[in-house]
Every structure is written in structure tokens, then in C-alpha cells.
Fold this sequence. Notes:
The protein is of the alpha/beta class. The chain is built from ten helices and 23 strands. It has three domains: about 70 residues, SH3 type barrels; about 210 residues, L-asparaginase, N-terminal domain (Rossmann fold, 3-Layer(aba) Sandwich); about 120 residues, 3-Layer(aba) Sandwich (Rossmann fold), CATH 3.40.50.
Amino acid sequence: xxxxxxxxxxxxxxxxxxxxxxxxxxxxxxxxxxxxxxxxxxxxxxxxxxxxxxxxxxxxxxxxxxxxxxxxxxxxxxxxxxxxxxxxxxxxxxxxxxxxxxxxxxxxxxxxxxxxxxxxxxxxxxxxxxxxxxxxxxxxxxxxxxxxxxxxxxxxxxxxxxxxxxxxxxxxxxxxxxxxxxxxxxxxxxxxxxxxxxxxxxxxxxxxxxxxxxxxxxxxxxxxxxxxxxxxxxxxxxxxxxxxxxxxxxxxxxxxxxxxxxxxxxxxxxxxxxxxxxxxxxxxxxxxxxxxxxxxxxxxxxxxxxxxxxxxxxxxxxxxxxxxxxxxxxxxxxxxxxxxxxxxxxxxxxxxxxxxxxxxxxxxxxxxxxxxxxxxxxxxxxxxxxxxxxxxxxxxxxxxxxxxxxxxxxxxxxxxxxxxxxxxxxxxxxxxxxxxxxxxxxxx
Length: 444
């Protein structure tokens, strides 16, 4: 977006263009950074400067304000790339780039943030990776923000990962947006049967133009994990808000627990598999499957007509009827505490029990998780829990809601028999159910 005609004239006279490095003085304060275009809803007389910290500042241009060009700055519209040099003495690893903050680039011509189109553009930010692994192949099956992911993309990834592992890759790194990375990690954990090598998912909470960019360190740590003997789907992200170490967390026990912190991804109800340092040190903290020979199977069957429903005070149980009437095959109800739903309210019509019972009788699986996140469900502690259990609700131990949703779609892709669905949902396939929740993991 352009600035006001007057401000555009001043910038032109001084030879300043968007993307140039400028110095602005106002009221005794000095700001130096890159000139950005005006945001769409911004004041046309307010300069937007991207500081070296990565943050933007708006400076109202008025009498007494001085601006000068101090450097050419960034070349608009051009994304830097790393020319990959192969070292066959290092393990052959395949990288799959799907999108997300770790693969973004700020266009200094428009001010917009764009997703990198090639893994080589991502590696420009972490060239150390090429000294840890031999990047055998870099693939981009699609480029999506993680909120735009669907089960179809999970299927695509599962088939692609299995193919590459079976063709000799020592491991696979997947770059991914963070918002739904734990959904994808769960999906791959179920879909990749007989997994015998590491599949490492990695992202970034901060964009590359910011001084607090975390993606480079995450990618370096992921490169060390993909060389290890951890033959599971894991998420590798910052372990603290500083650049201390990363955590490698099981794909079915990881959750994004903060919208912006660099250490947002935490293990739930169990310890992380490992701590990982940038120098390659790995400290194992939990049991895990180890490397072995064999063929990986992409078991990507998935029933899309599943949903998550949240129970809360005053929630309308007729939402269950809507899903049943629209031919949904399964629901995960995120209950309160041990897995409660409104059961005996003063207004009988507000009880969820008859609606759960009707759904089950009509062949819809109803799974119950807890919105406390930590801890586990239990169908027997209170009478109301027993009533829900008797109505056909199945309490899913300590499974995370998001994981239960993904697992239910995967299970229903294999069978529609409610007896078999229940048995499969209560079977531990990929570490999604623990016998005892590890107390050390609470707020780890």
C-alpha cells in the first residue's frame, strides 16, 4: 500500500524506496530499520519501519521528523536460497516441506508474509543442517498453512514418507505449520505402520525476519534426531524460551500449549522422549521404539465424518443430533474433569445423556476425553460418569482430544463395527494411551 502523496514525494526526493534501510529521528528518538509498505488499514502518513528485532514500529510523519536512507536493505520479492551440497559420508535424509512459519519470507515490496516454495529456501536459514545430514532429496507435495490442512494431506504425507523410507532414506524431516502440527504428528503415528526409522516434524513459532526466530535451531536439532535410533514420529521444538535445547516429543503425546512462546510444544501425561542440543548431544528421557530393518506400511484409511464436541455449562446437547442427522460416524466429546457431560441439570431437556444414548443406538461411536488436558478420564468415580458410560459413551483413558479425533477417523476407516471400533479405540497403537500418567510431565 502506498503512503500519502506528500510522503511519497518526500521519499522519492530522498531516493528512498520500500525495502531500503532508513534512519528516522523524532522527538529525540532514533529508529533504524527497513522501510515497509503501509498496511492496508494504516494511516497513510505513518511510516512503517521493521526494526532489527523483527518487530514493526509506526512513526507518524509530521513537522520535525527526519528520515534518511542508510542502506539498500532487502531486495523486494526475492527469496534467498541455499545451494545444497551433497555429502555422501553423511546419512541420507529426505526433507518434506509443507508450509508454515518455518518456511515464510517477508516480501518487502508488499509487506506480506509468503510461504517459501522450496526446501532450499528454508535451508538458507539453517545451513548447518548440511553438515549434519546429507539431504538426499527435498520435496514439496503442497504448500499450506497448517490451519488449512485436512485428512487428505495427512494421507498424502503418510504415503510419501513410507515411500521414501522404503527406498532407503535414513529418516524423514517434515517442516510444518505449528497450529495443527500435533494433529498431523498423531495422524502419521497411526498411518505409518511398522515404522522403523525417525520421522521428525519441525516448525517455528517466530518468523525468520525476527531476531527471536526459532526455526533454525529447531531444524538443526531435528537433523540430529533424524540420525538417532528414535524410530517414531516425533515433534522437535524449543524446550525453553531461550536457545538452550529442543525437546523430541512423541507424536501422540505432544500438544501446542501456547499461541506464541517458542517452547509452546509440551509433552502431555508422559515425559518427552529426549532433550536435544544443537551440538548433537541427545539425552534420552523416555522409552521409544528403535531402528530396525523392515518395510513401512502407509495405512492411510480415514473416515472424514468425525468431529470434536465440547461440553460446557449451558451447552446444548442437540448439537449431537445435528451430527447424527448429518451422517457422522463418530464423535469425540471433550468433557469436564474425569469426562463429565451435563447429566442431571434442573432442566431435563439440557441433559446430554438421552442424546448420547440415541446416537449410540443409531450406530455412532461416542468417545469421551477430558478438557483438563492433563490426567485421564474415568467412567466409574461418580454416578453421572456411570450414567454416561451406560448410555454408551466410551471414556478414552488419557488420550488427548485431538489425538482421539484423529485416531477415531483412522479406526473408522478400517471398520464400522461399533464393538471393533471400541476395542481399537482402547488399544494402544502409537503410545497414545499410557497405563499411568507420569506425574513429572505435569506442566513440564
